[in-house]
Amino acid sequence: MVVLVVVQPFGCIMIERRDVYQAIADPTRRMIIQKLSGGPLNIGQIVEDSGITRQGIAKHLKVLYECGMISFTQKGREQFCEARLEQLDEVVDWVNASRKLWGQRFKKLDNFLAETKKQ
Amino acid sequence: MVVLVVVQPFGCIMIERRDVYQAIADPTRRMIIQKLSGGPLNIGQIVEDSGITRQGIAKHLKVLYECGMISFTQKGREQFCEARLEQLDEVVDWVNASRKLWGQRFKKLDNFLAETKKQ
DNA sequence: CACAAGCACAACCATTTGGTTGCAAAAAAT
DNA sequence: ATTTTTTGCAACCAAATGGTTGTGCTTGTG
């Protein structure tokens, strides 16, 4: 997990972490994640049929790495890339929490109406 | 990918469909979604304690609307905003599909090793 | 050795993003 | 009738994003 320490105006130090939401926001990165879901690949293999340049892919890999969604293993001159999908739990948890609240919104409205009736 | 061409509230003309991944990529938009999960609110209520200006919020609402994650209802001079969290299914489905594939990666490796042993 | 494969790093570029300020319109309240 | 609330719209801005080309450094291979 990479933490970006940003020194802002007034000498403020902000600690920014790239998050998983940002990681999966881009369609190319989702494609990379799906390719890697099948197992580790080297960068050349990821570039194959991606439609963009190696350097473009490298930038996306950097983002994914900074989110802790992939890890690297050097093997000779090749760099193998492996997915770490545990991070996606955060997204699912957030979605479920929101939907749980959303599912209760009518109940809450009923409670509100009941309360106002009493007064 | 579904492309909707809708000319409706907010003066939005939707030609390309923004996707849900982009909608939840921004922390401010996630905050808005969570606020709305409890039930409909007008724009002023969403702005409350958000730390950014009404116009800033309006831009985020436009994005959320274009993703089909919120809908509007005019009531006098107030514009009420309601969440449509069904859209989040797409995210959960994608995550689950990736994780399913990921869970099978060792099995695949075993199969591969078994195949090569035969030859 | 010479050469190719695989990759990292830097510079550059156009567009998008995420915010701001200012102003105008319409509905409600006084 | 005037003022206040609530909102919409446009212009502006800095920074981030998503790509590109070019260069050069390792590491295997003939």
From TrEMBL, chains A, B:
InterPro entries from the UniProt entry? ArsR-like_HTH, HTH_ArsR_DNA-bd_dom, WH-like_DNA-bd_sf, WH_DNA-bd_sf
Could you list the residue ranges that cross the membrane? none
Q: Where is the HTH arsR-type domain?
A: 9-103
Top-level lineage group: Bacteria
Q: Name one Pfam family in it.
A: HTH_5
The cross-references to NCBIfam families, in alphabetical order and at most eight, read:
HTH_metalloreg (NF033788)
Q: Which PANTHER family match?
A: SLL0088 PROTEIN (PTHR38600:SF2), TRANSCRIPTIONAL REGULATORY PROTEIN (PTHR38600)
Provide the protein name. Answer: Transcriptional regulator
What is the species of this protein? Parapedobacter defluvii
